[in-house]
Design brief:
Elements lengths: L3 H7 L2 H18 L4 H16 L28 H12 L31 H6 L6 H36 L3 H29 L7 H12 L3 H26 L3 H31 L3 H6 L1
């Protein structure tokens, strides 16, 4: 297999710049050893990393293929899920009125930094010949924070739609009750992250190609448990860690309070994924299906 970095190195600069993302994507796909994973991620990878569907400036259409399940007896047979649903109802909050939106946010204020200077290793950049002034360092911190929050926002939009799909597709009714509260949670997260980026940072970055690929793959997968694994365990789990990291480092009070409330919601979402999948994976899947998941 041709190493894309070696190929790029011998091409003219302008040609290399145009081909690099495509060759890198092809190399990533070529390194996938499990053909089932390649079949699942391949089409989404093409749409996200090659065709840049998330960056075309128009609403993106993703075809959903999942089944919807109705239960006309409305059973309550999962006490743990019922308790989680009760806690979710009690934990609802209004992003418009709960957060202190009257807080003055100056992204370049060194006294109240969005992220601390030590969050980025500027000394390592200097060793590579990249020397930034104090002003440029603050602008880089500002841009990096806006980029991270933009990806949080895009991920929350994916979680919003995935939660709606899973609520339709899950076959136990207590899961549908809880799923409806998560749809509301994710809508609120989209609302507050977008409002912060739009009114406080005045900067919004496009969705990262890798994030788009994951969202595309999960949204178009017809298996409800794969949506759960991808969104509730993998993406929500990673998001919980990323939110916690930024919460610990930021000094900006509005962002800190926003992240605190989102973290409380996300912890329930991860718990939901564990409860929903625990018995399903143990009892309802073949060994081959468990291995794939």
């Amino acid at each position: 297999m041709i190493n894309h970095e070696r190929l790029i190195a011998i091409l003219p600069t302008k040609v290399a710049e145009r081909l690099d993302p495509y060759l890198e994507t092809l190399q990533v796909l070529a390194e996938v050893r499990d053909p089932r994973v390649l079949r699942s991620l391949g089409p989404a990878g093409v749409r996200g990393m090659l065709l840049k569907r998330g960056k075309q400036g128009v609403p993106t259409r993703v075809r959903a293929t999942h089944d919807t399940y109705f239960d006309w007896s409305y059973p309550h047979d999962n006490p743990e899920m019922e308790e989680l649903y009760r806690r979710a109802k009690q934990g609802q909050w209004d992003g418009d009125t709960y957060l202190p939106w009257n807080t003055d946010v100056d992204p370049l204020n060194p006294e109240v930094p969005l992220i601390p200077k030590g969050f980025i290793n500027f000394e390592a950049a200097e060793q590579l010949g990249i020397k930034l002034s104090e002003r440029e360092q603050r602008e880089f911190q500002y841009s990096l924070t806006a980029w991270m929050l933009s990806q949080f926002l895009h991920g929350e939009q994916g979680a919003l739609f995935a939660a709606a799909q899973v609520t339709e597709a899950v076959q136990f009714f207590d899961g549908k009750y809880y799923g409806a509260t998560q749809v509301m949670d994710e809508a609120r997260h989209v609302e507050v992250f977008h409002r912060y980026l739009d009114t406080k940072l005045n900067k919004l970055y496009q969705v990262n190609d890798n994030l788009f690929t994951i969202i595309d793959a999960l949204m178009s997968d017809g298996r409800w448990d794969m949506k759960f694994l991808g969104m509730q365990i993998m993406i929500e789990g990673l998001a919980l860690g990323a939110f916690g990291m930024l919460y610990q480092h930021t000094s900006e009070p509005l962002l800190k309070e926003l992240l605190k409330m989102v973290i409380q919601d996300e912890a329930r979402h991860v718990h939901y994924g564990v409860l929903a999948l625990r018995e399903h994976i143990k009892t309802e899947l073949s060994e081959k299906e468990r291995h794939e998941r």
